[in-house]
Design brief:
The protein is an all-alpha fold.
């Protein structure tokens, strides 16, 4: 499993180039990869670890309280985010029955955080693939446009 390379490329997709952020994401991977299932607490803690240096403590590890637009798409209103995340997590409890890519796209459409959704979402996808004993999907920065086609 070449997680460092995955993280480096994931960070580049989000224009995060600081080597300290690779180490921060490796901490998050170390944490999440040991988990048997995803819960809200685990999802929030993983996000908090990934974004610890990039967001304020009131935003890192917390669901967003503001509306956001990704590209030309308005994401679900903040009041719906907790329920949507709960639905996603409910399906993730049966991770053996779901395709990691599909669950990743679903998570990204919810866009539950003010920032760090892509980096966190890819890590949840890798966790899912890891649990299924699949090869982790490497999304190269130079191939990011093909990745964006998923959405």
């Amino acid at each position: 499993m070449i997680v460092r390379k995955h993280i480096e490329q994931s960070n580049l997709i989000e224009n995060v180039k600081d080597p300290k952020e690779i180490e921060q994401s490796l901490l998050a991977w170390s944490y999440i990869s040991e988990q048997d299932n995803l819960t809200l607490e685990i999802v929030l803690r993983t996000h908090e670890l990934i974004m610890a240096n990039l967001l304020s403590p009131k935003d890192a590890g917390h669901l967003r309280k503001f509306g956001v637009t990704v590209g030309n798409r308005l994401c679900p209103a903040p009041r719906y985010v907790p329920e949507l995340v709960d639905e996603w997590l409910e399906d993730m409890q049966n991770w053996k029955d779901h395709e990691p890519k599909k669950m990743h796209v679903w998570f990204e459409r919810i866009h539950p955080f003010i920032d760090g959704n892509g980096r966190s979402g890819r890590m949840y996808m890798w966790w899912h693939e890891h649990k299924l004993e699949q090869k982790l999907t490497l999304i190269n920065y130079l191939d990011r446009w093909s990745y964006y086609d998923w959405f």
